Automatic annotation (TrEMBL):
Protein name in UniProt: C-type lectin domain family 19 member A isoform X3
UniProt cross-references to PANTHER family, sorted A to Z: MANNOSE, PHOSPHOLIPASE, LECTIN RECEPTOR RELATED (PTHR22803)
Domain of life of the organism encoding this protein: Eukaryota
SMART domains attached to this UniProt entry: CLECT
Amino acid sequence: MPEPVHAYSCPLFWTEYEGHCYRYFPINKTWAEADLYCAEFSIGIRSAKLASIHSWQENVFVYDLVNSRVPGIPTDIWTGLNDLRQEGHFEWTDGSSYDYQYWDGSQPDDGIHSIPEEEDCVQIWYRHSSG
């Protein structure tokens, strides 16, 4: 859940990375529930959002943050990336640009093994790079 950091540091229990504050909540929620839950938290004058990821380094940071709280990173770690408004057109809930992607080789598959309308939201995925 990043939010820009201005002339203050991140609140207690939040971690700063490149001017944004992040926090992992180890609770089981659907994407919509997680999105609403994040919005209940304020950082400065803005509501928190699910994390938007814009680089490999930020992807690793978010993964490491979660893994430091829950070793062996659990499934269902939601990001703010989704195609709820227009199928196949991904956007971040914080309105930032969709300038980085790191999909699993078969993704996005629009739920070929489920109902397509049920796969509109994106979970974090990480694979260690050997290079």
